Amino acid sequence: MEDQIFRRSAGAWQQSLTSLLDLARLLTNRGWNVATECPGWSVRDVISHVIGMERELLGDPRPIHALPTDLAHVRDEHGRRNEVQVDVRRCHTGPEMLAELEETLRRRQRAIEAERRGDDDVVATPWGARPLGELLRMRAFDVWVHEQDVRRAVRVPANLDSPAALIARDVLLAGLAGAIAGRVADGATVVLDVQGPVEFLRTVRVEDGVGRLQEQVPLAPDAQLTFDWELFARLACGRIRPAAADVKVEGDEALARQVLGGFAVTR
């Protein structure tokens, strides 16, 4: 069985996680505590989340840990689940965090190199059964998003056009097609014009309540939104509010604002 998605995603995942590790090696004690755009999370918290998710995929037991009751950014069971791996590490020092990240990367690399299953083989995960290719694709996406959270927080930009960034583009566009369909009427066409390190032009056409991505751009779309790649990703990942974003809007402005109001497809 071909495993092209798995191998391509594994390479993107490894590049982004290695890049995050290299960045972590540069952090000062203060740098670990800098707030990120990920609600409620510092640099330490973001890296704790990445470590925790990868360790769960290695089969390590989840920490037994009682969360504080006053965490305003934790709003549902999914958030509480993620927060356990984060909160349990809030007392860890920078060197302890770095050592754990290094060890986790080594173990996960060995596990991925030893993997012999293909893209469509369903594997058990802490979040339910998933096709192997899709699992690694989403890990590459998640690690890249959090790498960028850390980079923006400590003001060390890089990797905006990495292999995982291209995976992020496709994941976010797929999510946006559905999100836009849920907010506009049938027949509407919305053009997304993204410029910068990752550049693309896509149309979302809504038909029968379904958003369909197209590379063809109509002569007169109902609305066109233009942004740079980093801003597009920040909006789609819920890192910035639409009101604070410098988005160029053409066409039906009310429709465009309606689309932007539901632009965050992940968090």
Automatic annotation (TrEMBL):
Alphabetized GO MF terms: metal ion binding
InterPro entries listed in its UniProt record: DinB/YfiT-like (IPR034660), Maleyloyr_isom (IPR017517), MDMPI_C-term_domain (IPR010872), MDMPI_metal-binding (IPR024344), SCP2_sterol-bd_dom_sf (IPR036527)
Mycothiol-dependent maleylpyruvate isomerase metal-binding domain segment(s): 14-151
Gene3D superfamilies for the chain: dinb family like domain (1.20.120.450)
Pfam families, per the entry: MDMPI_C, MDMPI_N
Superkingdom of origin: Bacteria
Residues covered by the MDMPI C-terminal domain: 170-256
Alphabetized NCBIfam families for the sequence: maleylpyruvate isomerase family mycothiol-dependent enzyme
Protein's name in the database: Uncharacterized protein (TIGR03083 family)
Lineage: Bacteria, Bacillati, Actinomycetota, Actinomycetes, Kitasatosporales
